Amino acid sequence: MLKGKIAIVTGGTRGIGYAIVEKYLENHATVILCGSRQETADKAVAKLKEAHPGCPVEGIAPDLTDYASIKAAFDGVREKYGRIDILVNNAGMSSSDPLSAYTPELFHKVMSLNVDAVFYCIRAVYDAMEAQGSGCILNTSSMVSRYGQPKGVAYPTSKAAINGMTLSLARELGPLGIRVNAVDPASTATKMLRDFFAARGLELSAEAIGRMTGTPSLLTEDEVGTAICHLVQWEDPAPVGRNYLLRFREDCENLNRQGRDGHVYPGTAQ
Ligand SMILES: NC(=O)c1ccc[n+]([C@@H]2O[C@H](COP(=O)([O-])OP(=O)(O)OC[C@H]3O[C@@H](n4cnc5c(N)ncnc54)[C@H](OP(=O)(O)O)[C@@H]3O)[C@@H](O)[C@H]2O)c1
Questions:
Q1: CB-based contact 204:221 (threshold 8 Å)
Q2: pLDDT: is 174 or 261 the higher one?
Q3: Among 178, 265, 193, 174, which residue's Cα sits nearest to residue 227?
Q4: N or C: less crowded end of the chain, CB within 10 Å?
Q5: Residue identifier of the C-alpha nearest atom 29 of ligand 1
Q6: Quick check: is 196 in a domain?
Q7: 198 in a structural domain
């Protein structure tokens, strides 16, 4: 149960982020979701309120590439609710250009959202979490942070950077009661992945993914969202600085079971 918890979820308007928001609401958290525009944030909030009447959710749209914009927005959340318990850094973008077409501008654009913004958001919630002596930060990395991805070089690079940030801040902030972890999902059927396949003129399926990556797995947003929800429900002493690899449906289920019974199942945490 997340009753009384205040959670900020970036990239909460659709895909994995939207599934995380839904799971948090079902577990009675208050959720502030971030979109790239106020319009998309409002649309997601309206959809959630229709599905879960009266649920405590609101939408904001700070510029995630600008620290001042994030700080002002998150300070507003802290002022309104008095605390910030959970931050999920989930907003992200991908690109599939080959190196021959990859421009420095595109490289910086991907790194700016996938890496700089994660640092900015963590920095912006730090004061609140440090004062509380508690907090839970979850970063959505990716399986490609471990195995690489031919074409679209900035994306796996950015996710590998997130793994380094996760491990470093986990060690620094763990003693303060702030847990920092990451999940590394395999291919998940969201708009990002559909665009990736469309750009290559391919049909999205587990088999097609298997041919491309060697892992014939296609997760659903709900499976990943549920696993990420269970990860924040663990009470102290909870693990910090783990990268949870979600390759197959079983990995999501193991993480859920682990959240319930505390037993560490093989193959996920690294
Ligand atoms: N799908 C996969 O196979 C997969 C696998 C592993 C990891 N991941 C990671 O999981 C996370 C979510 O991916 P997804 O597949 O759910 O993506 P998605 O469906 O494309 O959704 C992306 C989310 O990020 C937000 N966003 C995009 N650009 C933004 C910007 N410039 N500023 C602020 N917000 C922005 C979008 O908000 P708006 O709707 O408001 O634009 C949306 O909420 C990403 O970090 C991704 O790298 C995905």
A1: no
A2: 174
A3: 265
A4: N
A5: 36
A6: no
A7: no
Phi, psi of 57 (to 5 degrees): -135, 140
Q: Which residue out of 18, 24, 120, 155 is catalytically annotated?
A: 155
**Domain housing 230:** 6-185+221-245
**Cα–Cα dist 111/116, whole Å:** 7
Active site residue 18: no
Q: Rounded distance, CA 53 to CA 50, Å?
A: 6
Least confident of 130-139, 164-173, 243-252: 243-252
Average of pLDDT values for 86-113?
Answer: 96
Q: How confident is the model over 17-64, as pLDDT tens digits? A: 999 999 999 999 999 999 999 999 999 999 999 999 999 999 999 999
Does 270 fall in a domain?
no
pLDDT score recorded for residue 236: 46
Q: How many structural domains comprise the chain?
A: 1
